[in-house]
Amino acid sequence: MNSSSDNDTVRISRRGLLLVLSSPSGAGKSTISRALLKGDKNLTMSVSVTTRPERPGEVEGQDYYFIGQEKFKTMVQDGEFLEHATVFENSYGTSREPVEQALNDGKDVLFDVDWQGTQQLAENARDDLLSVFILPPSIEELERRLHDRAQDSDEVVAKRMAMATSEMSHWREYDYIIVNEDVDVSVAQVESILAAERLKRDRQSGMGDFVRGMGVSQ
User: Fold this and answer.
1) pLDDT band (50, 70, 90) for residue 87
2) Mean pLDDT of all residues in 98-116
3) Most exposed: 89, 95, 110, 176, by fewest CB within 10 Å?
4) What is the mean pLDDT of residues 132-140?
């Protein structure tokens, strides 16, 4: 007969990680992100700070943290961001404090940032960073997906395609590369990467205590 301890799941404390997904527009990053968040309770989406106006339906603290430009500048000067950028006169950034708290609690934080944001995260949190770049199966397929979304005009699609080559040129800067031919397969691949990275020795901060508890000398 098994004792209750035999049936208990062993839980070893660990430090969370920063999971970055980057890709050119239309390669499937957002779809993969939504699937990961839906299927993994230990994964949470990073919520950015922004200076742009709040849009109808957006929720403070869920979609963004909305602040003024002067406050944003002060946060930059005080080193409060892990990464930040200005796009079309609006500023965006990832506040260091809530991310650090999540990592200390063993939570993993998902980031939807471009290669420039990824470089900043690498500079500020390399030991916690896990970066994945999503590629389309072909440039023709990328363009087809952008047109099929029916979200953008032909002019905007052309601009996105022009940017895609530049964005994809940074693929070597990432830890893992996935060619998104099939979304379900790509989601499973990211899940496998995440599972393996969570088991890395250095991330399992409670492993030393666990092993010592079995009478093993260190």
Assistant:
1) confident
2) 95
3) 89
4) 96
10 Å CB burial of residue 65 (0-12, 13-18, 19+) is middle
Answer for the pair 109, 128: CB distance below 8 angstroms, yes or no: no
Angstrom distance (rounded) from CA 155 to CA 157: 5
Q: Give all domains of the chain, ordered by start, each with its CATH number.
A: 16-205 (3.40.50.300)
Whole-angstrom distance, CA of residue 80 vs CA of residue 87:
19
Residue 4 — very low, low, confident or very high, per pLDDT cuts 50/70/90? very low
3-state secondary structure labels for all residues of the chain: CCCHHHHCCCCCCCCCCEEEEECCCCCCHHHHHHHHHHHCCCEEECCCEECCCCCCCCCECCCEEECCHHHHHHHHHCCCEEEEEEECCEEEEEEHHHHHHHHHCCCEEEEECCHHHHHHHHHHHHHHEEEEEEECCCHHHHHHHHHHHCCCCHHHHHHHHHHHHHHHCCHHHCCEEEECCCHHHHHHHHHHHHHHHHCCHHHCCCHHHHHHCCCCCC
Contacts of 160 by beta carbon, 8 Å cutoff, 6+ apart: 24, 25, 26, 146, 152
